[in-house]
């Protein structure tokens, strides 16, 4: 592949909604949607391949620990904490533009609180906690403004 194609050659100062964002669906799956293994390493792989939006399907797990897997299937489960740690490690190795966690939440309030705790603990200052009024998309920050930040979409 041509290394020049990895460079960004456009204005990155427009509101976030003006861009196509490379997204991953069922990011955690290593194979098919019914029987395959869920693996935290899949997040490392797609983030390094340039993906900027990853999906995290969260479910109540044992001992109060939320897990990530494809619900109502036989896919294996991985601890949410492990997924967050992997994302934190690999999010900005290839580029500094923001990473969006698309969280599909199926958790009880108790385990949602655990997810929030892990997000703050693991991502620290990288976690963008600023609130955005969704009424006017022109008010959204730009990819340039959000460099090095992790956004949460639920």
Automatic annotation (TrEMBL):
Residues 10-154 form the Phosphatidylinositol-specific phospholipase C X domain. This is Phosphoinositide phospholipase C. SMART domains: PLCXc. InterPro entries: PI-PLC_fam, PLC-like_Pdiesterase_TIM-brl, PLipase_C_PInositol-sp_X_dom. The keyword Hydrolase applies. One of its GO terms (cellular component) is cytoplasm. GO terms for molecular function: phosphatidylinositol-4,5-bisphosphate phospholipase C activity. Its EC number is 3.1.4.11. PANTHER family: 1-PHOSPHATIDYLINOSITOL 4,5-BISPHOSPHATE PHOSPHODIESTERASE ETA-1, PHOSPHOINOSITIDE-SPECIFIC PHOSPHOLIPASE C FAMILY PROTEIN. Pfam families: PI-PLC-X. It comes from Chloropsis cyanopogon. Gene3D superfamilies: Phosphatidylinositol (PI) phosphodiesterase. Keywords: Hydrolase, Lipid degradation, Lipid metabolism. It catalyses: a 1,2-diacyl-sn-glycero-3-phospho-(1D-myo-inositol-4,5-bisphosphate) + H2O = 1D-myo-inositol 1,4,5-trisphosphate + a 1,2-diacyl-sn-glycerol + H(+). The lineage of its organism: Eukaryota, Metazoa, Chordata, Craniata, Vertebrata. It comes from the Eukaryota. GO terms for biological process: lipid catabolic process; phosphatidylinositol metabolic process; phosphatidylinositol-mediated signaling; release of sequestered calcium ion into cytosol.
